[in-house]
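Duplicate of #3305? Posting structure anyway:
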């Protein structure tokens, strides 16, 4: 049985908790034993937020968990196998390393860290301790994106000739850190990293990027970003993020990908597949959100003592390098910046 501790019970922490409890109900070899949050009210399920509806119909019995307001105390007092970190981004590096050094496997939310040097420190700690580290780039487990990745890899429609990724929504109103550039990195790092990571996962690192960015909310960094990713084979790849779509906009994510022999449209709920030489159809996709498949994959990887190939720490670090290049380009009003 794998004992789980969760750190940070805000929007994502609650989502992760619900998914571990679902795995418990399904008979997976996991048991959530401890919760940790500096805000004691969160340890009883109060507060929340978020831009994706994830609510579960199962009420959570918060009385069954050991509760801590200090990470150190939780690590000292509990016998844990996995710690799941859903803390504000600027804390990812330090708390991930603290947990790995205490001898547990770690699932840490995306973005991996504030910059590539911090990612290097996290990778080194995982290697030094012989523990697994998974970064919650959940689109790598999200059915509509997994379908796309399998199509790219199989070459069923030939090579991709163009790709566009979109992500937009209202300004986050929870967790005041989210809108502080030094703590969250703006929409560019917090939200857009999903699409940058998808570009990296599907096509590898681009040679160079050109980004136009705009700050709207004082102190938050780039809130609107549009990027072109340059590849040696000439495929045309772009993405756009905007988290200042307020009013009744809600949240939207999607993609449009063109291949030599067909194309794909994802509108946030369904993937339409359009072969050039036949009738279009909707892809049959697994029904749950990527959060569930991601946590399930991590638990199975730890239980089976094998790494998760779909999201290695090195590849999620590469996504942070690309985002950093995008920021440098935006700082130079769209100049092409080479990706290291
Ligand atoms: N994968 C996704 O789709 C997705 C969606 C939203 C957020 N996220 C990521 O998840 C992470 C958390 O975001 P969130 O929206 O849940 O934030 P949040 O502000 O809702 O939650 C963070 C929680 O951490 C707690 N906390 C802060 N400092 C702490 C400390 N030192 N020790 C213990 N607890 C502490 C806070 O009290 C809060 O409850 C971020 O990195 C964010 O980018 C991922």
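Output from current build:
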């Amino acid at each position: 049985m794998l004992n789980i501790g969760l750190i940070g019970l805000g929007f994502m922490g609650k989502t992760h908790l619900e998914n571990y409890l679902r795995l418990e109900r399904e008979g997976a070899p996991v048991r959530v034993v401890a919760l940790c949050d500096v805000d004691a009210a969160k340890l009883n399920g109060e507060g929340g937020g978020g831009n994706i509806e994830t609510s579960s119909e199962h009420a959570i019995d918060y009385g069954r968990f050991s509760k801590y307001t200090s990470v150190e105390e939780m690590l000292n007092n509990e016998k844990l196998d996995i710690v799941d970190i859903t803390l504000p981004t600027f804390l990812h590096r330090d708390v991930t390393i603290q947990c790995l050094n205490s001898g547990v496997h770690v699932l840490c939310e995306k973005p991996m860290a504030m910059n590539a040097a911090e990612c290097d420190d996290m990778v080194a700690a995982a290697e030094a301790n012989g523990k697994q580290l998974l970064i919650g780039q959940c689109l790598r487990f999200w059915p509509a994106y997994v379908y796309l990745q399998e199509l790219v890899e199989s070459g069923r429609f030939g090579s991709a000739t163009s790709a566009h990724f979109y992500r937009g929504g209202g300004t986050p109103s929870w967790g005041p850190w989210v809108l502080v550039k030094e703590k969250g990195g703006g929409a560019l790092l917090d939200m857009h990293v999903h699409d940058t990571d998808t570009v990296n996962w599907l096509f590898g690192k681009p040679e160079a990027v050109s980004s136009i960015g705009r700050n709207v909310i004082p102190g938050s960094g780039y809130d609107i970003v549009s990027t072109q990713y340059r590849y040696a084979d000439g495929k045309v790849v772009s993405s756009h993020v905007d988290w200042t779509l307020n009013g009744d906009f809600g949240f939207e994510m999607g993609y449009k990908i063109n291949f030599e022999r067909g194309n794909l449209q994802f509108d946030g709920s369904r993937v339409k597949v359009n072969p050039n030489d036949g009738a279009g159809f909707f892809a049959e996709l697994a029904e749950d959100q990527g959060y569930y498949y991601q946590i399930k994959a991590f638990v199975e990887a730890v239980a089976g003592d094998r790494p998760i190939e779909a999201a290695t720490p090195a590849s999620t670090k590469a996504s942070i390098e690309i985002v950093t290049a995008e920021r440098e380009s935006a700082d130079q009003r769209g100049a092409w910046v080479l990706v290291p």
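Confirmed duplicate; merging threads. The chain has ten helices and 15 strands. The radius of gyration is 20 Å.
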